[in-house]
Design the sequence.
């Protein structure tokens, strides 16, 4: 195995692990285990800092805790990564009206 193919395989494994953590966070959030969901989103972002969905998940949790300023920070990051994301645009509007 070449160094390049090894690096590619490691990157794929990290992405797969980040995706698994993203889904785990969503499942956890649905069952109201908010603190655990935050940990899962953060762990996913440590593996893949370009996961706009993880930033949006964190933003939704901060809105749940009635912290629109904190939520806006995460929505802003998600919009940097995916400027046309409808969920991010909707959440941005919410954070600006609270």
Sequence:
């Amino acid at each position: 195995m070449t160094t390049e193919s090894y690096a590619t395989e490691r990157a794929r494994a990290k992405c797969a692990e980040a995706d698994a953590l993203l889904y785990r966070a969503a499942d956890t959030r649905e069952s109201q285990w908010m603190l655990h969901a935050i940990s899962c989103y953060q762990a996913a972002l440590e593996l893949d800092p370009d996961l706009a969905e993880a930033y949006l998940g964190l933003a939704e949790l901060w809105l749940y805790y009635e912290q629109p300023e904190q939520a806006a920070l995460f929505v802003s990051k998600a919009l940097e990564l995916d400027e046309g994301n409808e969920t991010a645009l909707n959440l941005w509007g919410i954070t600006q009206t609270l």
Notes: The first helix runs from residue 3 to 30. The helical segments are 3-30, 34-47, 52-64, 68-81, 86-97. The chain has a mean pLDDT of 89. The radius of gyration is 15 Å.
